[in-house]
Amino acid sequence: MVDIVLWGKRRQMRGKSLDGDVRTAFQRDKARIMHAASFRRLQSKKQVIGVGLNDFYRTRLTHSLEAAQISTGIVTQLRKNQTELTEMLDLDEYLLEAICLAHDIGHPPFGHGGEVALHYMMLDYGGFEGNGQTFRILTDLESYTEHHGMNLSRRTLLGVIKYPGFIQTLDKNRRYPDKPKKFTQLQSDHWTPPKGLFEEEKAAYNWVVSVMSADDKRQFESIISSNDIASPSKTKFKSVDCSIMELADDIAYAIHDLEDALVMQMIDRLAFNEEITHALLKLNIDGLSDAAVQLESDLFSSESYKRKNAIGFLVNAFITPIRLSGQDTFNDNILEYTASLPKEYATALNIFKQFVFTHVISKPQMQVMNFRGQQVLMSLFEVFANEPERLLPQKTKKRWQQANSTSAQMRVVADYISGMTDQYAHKMYADLFLPKSAGITDL
Questions:
Q1: pLDDT tens per residue, range 64-123
Q2: CB–CB of 374/188 below 8 Å?
Q3: Residues of 302-341 as b/e, b for ≥16 C-beta within 10 angstroms?
């Protein structure tokens, strides 16, 4: 069984309890995340399609809400199919909702382009990565407590840690190209950050994993070293709750983001037929392959209810086969068990994910938007890092003044810029660099 008390603990136990508050630790975690400023800002950060182009498509906020909803469906399905195991693991819908709602709050403006821009600017100061920033916000920046951020429970924090390694460790054998003379010459693929945590959050991380045995901790932190000097190393393991969150995230990305692209008429039906319909037919998956031709018809139908029904069918098709299995690796069951799709379903989901990446994210018009956002963030970082006491807002400037090293000061600048919404970053850029009469549309 899972030690509920141990995994439900917080770094700072609250003082006087609220009268009549009978919520569980995970219910309180969910509430704290939903009421956080960093969570609200997700409404103006792009998911796949840029903010401001249309009022239909998903933002980071609606994506997080949908991932949370999918995660509860996964837990319900697992509870039905593997009752004893879910009880032993104490899987909890509120816990999974909290993890899914929090999983993207560290992502900067302009998606991957913004992440690359900040990693490039922070390369000499510890790097930048969206998942690492999420953990930093939860454990430090959001001011629910004086010193411990949102002060979430240990298990919630563990569930958010997708990559239990530190950027500088993962990147130590990697060789980056020489920095270009101008920001416009930066090639994004060469500066993609390793997925991990910041050194500044080591104390918070150590608290989360302090209840693990030495063997479990060593295994949990094990790394797959990269043989390519141009690529970072990767971590191997994550908690059972994190594995469920990742599945929910992948399903939301592959299926719900596909719907946005269909509505925006960004997808060619012939390409869909060749790359998805035919691929599903070849996989010969009961139910899913049988419905492939009808799914294509409904997804491209002018009748919106047919498209919605097809999207619902696909989400359900990927939720229902998910199962928990052991890895014969860990003593603690939270680490030992993982949720996964059977091989053929995982292949099918990856086909959808790759299709969205190829036919939506990689489209030139989308990459132009990413490039523009990248240039905006690098320019803003350069300006604020150069004249922080002149240009940073008062609270941020105070944090910069209190920082005890250049790296810590640059981290404060990265915190400020990564917390901006897409629209605010554009406005700030326009205020700093464009003539008074110019606006966001002139960028």
A1: 999 999 999 999 999 999 999 999 999 999 999 999 999 999 999 998 899 999 999 999
A2: yes
A3: eeeebbeebbebbbebbbebbebeeeeebebbbbbbbbbb
pLDDT tens-place string over residues 130-177: 999 999 999 999 988 888 999 999 999 999 999 999 999 999 889 999
Contact 181, 116 (CB under 8 A): no
| Cα-based angle 349, 350, 354 (whole degrees, multiple of 5) | 125
Look at the domain 25-238 and name its fold: Hypothetical protein af1432 (1.10.3210)
> Which residue ranges make up each domain of the chain?
25-238, 241-364, 366-442
Query: How are the residues of the chain apportioned to helix, strand and coil, as percentages rounded to the nearest 5?
Result: 60, 5, 35
**How many CA atoms does the CB half-sphere of 17 hold within 13 Å?**
8
Helices H / strands E in the chain, number of each: 25, 4
Q: Hey, is 182 helix, strand or coil?
A: coil
Cα–Cα distance for residue pair 205/283, rounded to 1 Å: 41
Q: Are 126 and 405 in contact (CB under 8 A)?
A: no
Global pTM?
A: 0.93
